[in-house]
Amino acid sequence: MSRVKGGLMAQKRRRNILEQVKGYRFGRSKKKRQAIEAIHHSGLHSFAHRKDKKADYRSLWITRINAALKAQGLQYSRFVKAMKDKGFAVDRKILATLAKDKPEVFTRIVDQVK
Q1: What is the pLDDT of residues 39-57, one digit of tens each?
Q2: Where exactly are the structural domains of the chain?
Q3: Is-contact 79 69, C-beta < 8 A?
Q4: Among 51, 101, 113, which residue's Cα sits nearest to residue 77?
C-alpha cells in the first residue's frame, strides 16, 4: 500500500483556523494550538456577552427614561407602575427612544399616564 502524506489537508485546516483568529495578538494569531484555544474561549465569551448586551441595553433605556422623568418630577418605578395600571403597552426601548429623540411625544405620554 502506498504512503499518504497529510500535508495538504493539514495546511488547509491550519489556514482555516488562522483565518478565524485574524486580528488577534501575539501567538494567538500565528500558532495553530493557541489559535484553537482562542477560538474556543471566544465562542464561550461571545455566548455569555450576547446575554450581557441585552441587560446593558435595558439598563441604558431605564436610565434614559428616568432622566427624562426627573425633569418632569416623577420617579421611574412609580411611572412604570402607573403605566401598567392604566394599561399602556409601550416598552422601555420605545420610551427611551422617544425621551431622547422626541421629548414632546414623551411628555404627552407622561401626561396621559399621570
Answers
A1: 999 999 999 899 999 999 9
A2: 7-113
A3: yes
A4: 113
Helix (H) or strand (E) holding 93: helix 92-101
Q: Write down how long the chain is.
A: 114
pTM of the model: 0.69
Other residues' Cβ atoms within 10 Å of the Cβ of residue 65: 23
What the block records as the C-alpha cell of 93 is: 426601548
Estimate to the nearest angstrom the gap between the alpha carbon of 26 and the chain centroid. Answer: 27
- Give the CA-trace dihedral at 69, 72, 77, 82, to 10 degrees: -110
CATH number of 7-113: 1.10.1900.20
Q: Are 99 and 63 in contact (CB under 8 A)?
A: no
